[in-house]
Design goal:
about 150 residues, alpha+beta, Nuclear Transport Factor 2, Chain: A, six-stranded mixed beta sheet, 3 helices, about 40% helix
Length: about 150
């Protein structure tokens, strides 16, 4: 009977430990995404470069794809200005160690050379833990029809 109880206690401890680690990982990647949003709104070069992976690929809903260098340059030069980034929903999954997938619906207001936009997007973002920090690795967005919630 004692061996059985020991097994139950160990299993409970392991389950609690795993959940605590998952919650800490989720909190860390959410904080990294919050920092990405704040740095984007501020067009802060240092903060953007710190949160973006060197291998970043940012696929806009237009089909244009930016690298880390080109995306940072477009924001810091004023070619692309974000006035608002507001999540309607944001979910994370961890398919593999050091990788987080974020799916979201997000309203973004921007100004660029083609004018102003205020649109709702469905997005898939990839985060990768690099040297102990979560870095923004990839983004793909799809503009949703007007009136979509």
């Amino acid at each position: 009977m004692r061996n059985w109880m020991s097994v139950v206690w160990v299993a409970a401890f392991v389950t609690i430990s795993i959940r605590a680690a998952e919650e800490a990982e989720l909190a860390a990647v959410k904080a990294a995404d919050d920092e990405r949003v704040a740095a984007t709104l501020a067009a802060d070069k240092g903060r953007l470069e710190a949160v973006f992976s060197d291998e970043l690929r940012y696929a806009h809903s237009s089909g244009n794809v930016d690298t880390k260098a080109s995306y940072v340059e477009s924001m810091t030069s004023g070619k692309l200005k974000y006035q608002a980034i507001e999540y309607k929903e944001r979910n994370f999954t961890f398919p593999e160690r050091h990788i987080a997938l974020m799916t979201a619906r997000v309203r973004m207001k921007t100004t660029s050379g083609t004018g102003e936009t205020d649109s709702l997007f469905s997005v898939l973002a990839v985060w990768r833990e690099e040297k102990g920090k979560w870095r923004f690795l990839a983004w793909q967005s799809c503009k949703l029809a007007a009136g979509a919630q």
